[in-house]
Amino acid sequence: MRYGYWTPVFGGWLRNVPDEGMAATWEYTKRLTQAAERWGYDLTLIAELNLNDIKGVEQPALDAWSTAAALAAVTESIELMVAVRPNFHHPALFAKAAANIDRIAGGRLALNVVSSWWADEAKQYGLQFDQHDDRYARTAEWLRVVDGLWSKDRFTFDGQFYTTQDAICAPKPEKRPTVYAGGESDAAKTMIATQCDAYVMHGDPATAIAPKIADMAARRAAAGGGPMHYGMAAYAIVRDSEAEAKRELERITTVSELPAGYANFDQWLSGTQLERELKVREYSVSNRGLRPNLVGTPEQLRERIAEYEAAGLDLLLLQMSPQHEEMERFASQVMGTA
Fold first, then answer.
1. 338 has a pLDDT exceeding 70
2. Which of 38, 171, 183, 211 is the most buried (most CB within 10 A)?
3. By C-alpha distance, which of 69, 71, 143, 72 is closest to 113?
4. CA 137, 171, 95 angle in degrees (round to 5)?
């Protein structure tokens, strides 16, 4: 299993706890990422939203790509998996900037391609917001342009959404960045199976993850592609006793009134095709992070992680709070690396 974590670009991951002691600042992010390398984490996912989805839209949120460029220069081994939303980035200009960041990082850049769901954010910034299947059509075309710029000396393209004419991207990435993507609709899975390298999923029990991996592997084989990697989001709480872990779970999920971070709850539900209805209590942690139940003692967590490995999962994308302290504890007690 590879272990990744979400960079706290929103100042935390808990919608019910206003101050988690992990401010959305460059200083905290730099310190955490450098420590994560020492503790043995493989990857960090840097989410991209211009509005703060966790703490409320009025609160600060770090920009993903300038943060990634800065981290590339002050880290040595950790993979930088940066979210990118095609309707927010022209692909030819993006290919140029991302190639430069990959060079700074020495070949450690990866993409998490996200087909946007937040209509209000796009409206605020005056950007195109496509209907559901159109998002994946745009993303598929966007990836063709980015790949073309990274692989050809000059690249010409004439599509529905984008055009280029003898475009040049130099220098190119040190190596082609791994492309991760997620989605639960048929349009999303078709695009991912044919054009991406890895499939990332919201949190779910291992019994639900196993058939998703099997389905995607079958789609990949039908498309004539090689093996894929599979990742999943999860929120982790590790304590010396199960009772302690459950007390912490109760603390972070108790909702007395809906805080600012719940403002777009209804829009988020209506903008995606989730297989099961999300409950308000579950929404206290993003990306269905509580469903994997990585809550308990080190031994319990290792047993549950082994179940995911048996299902074919090879990457965990972890959220914790407060992140510095909890990530060190997890690395020491579960990963055995800190």
1. yes
2. 183
3. 143
4. 15
Look up residue 80 and give its amino acid.
L
Q: What are phi and psi of 80, to 5 degrees?
A: -105, 100
Mean pLDDT, to the nearest integer, of 286-301?
A: 96
The answer to whether the beta carbons of residues 81 and 43 sit under 8 Å apart is: yes
Residues 204, 288: contact at Cβ < 8 Å?
yes
- Looking at this protein, which amino acid is placed at residue 26? W
Strands 294-296 vs 2-6: parallel, antiparallel or unpaired = unpaired
pLDDT at 300 over 50: yes
The 3-state DSSP class for residue 225 equals coil
pTM to 2 decimals?
0.92
The model's pLDDT over 100-133, given as tens digits with 9 standing for 90+, comes to 999 999 999 999 999 877 888 888 888 878 776 7
Both tokens of 53, joined, read 């989805």
Residues 6+ positions from 118 with CB-CB distance below 8 Å: 49, 51, 53, 264, 267, 268, 271
Percent with pLDDT over 70 in the chain: 91
How far apart, in whole angstroms, are the C-alpha atoms of residue 108 and residue 98? Answer: 11
Angle between helices 91-105 and 64-74 (to 10 degrees): 20
Distance separating alpha carbons of residues 330 and 316, to the nearest angstrom: 12
> CA 267, CA 25: separation in Å to the nearest integer?
28
**The predicted structure's pLDDT at residue 11:** 96
Q: Are 44 and 6 in contact (CB under 8 A)?
A: yes
Using alpha carbons, select from 188, 187, 193 the residue that is nearest to residue 220. Answer: 193
* Closest to 34 measured CA to CA, from 72, 83, 1: 72
